[in-house]
């Protein structure tokens, strides 16, 4: 068993444009609903 200490799951983000909540991965997550990059981490 060689599990990495940190989880590889993304963080929860909320879109400022449409209010969509999603799980984003990477430095610049994009809203899956409206493709906006105006999102905030929750
Ligand atoms: Zn959106």
Give an account of the 3D structure:
- It is a single chain.
- This protein has strands spanning 11-15, 21-24, 39-41.
- With 42 residues, the chain is mostly beta strands.
- The model has no long low-confidence stretch (mean pLDDT 88).
- The chain has a 3-stranded antiparallel beta sheet with strand order 2-1-3, with no helix packed on it.
- It has no helices and 3 strands.
- β1 (11-15) and β2 (21-24) form a beta hairpin.
- The radius of gyration is 12 Å and the shape is elongated.
- The protein has one domain.
- The structure holds zinc ion.
- Residues 15, 17-18, 20, 31, 33-34, 36 line the site of zinc ion.
Q: Keyphrases for this structure?
A:
42 residues, mainly beta, 29% strand, 0% helix, binds zinc ion
Quickly describe the structure.
This protein is an all-beta fold and 42 residues long. It contains no helices and three strands.
Q: From the alpha-carbon coordinates, what is the Rg to the nearest angstrom?
A: 12 Å
Count of helix runs:
0
**Share of residues in helices:** under 10%
The largest sheet has its strands arranged as: 2-1-3
Q: How many domain modules?
A: 1
The biggest sheet, with number of strands, parallel, antiparallel or mixed sense and barrel status, is: 3 strands, antiparallel
How many beta strands in the DSSP annotation? 3
Backbone structural class: mainly beta
Q: From the structure provided, what is the oligomeric state, counting identical versus distinct chains?
A: single chain
Rounded mean pLDDT score: 88
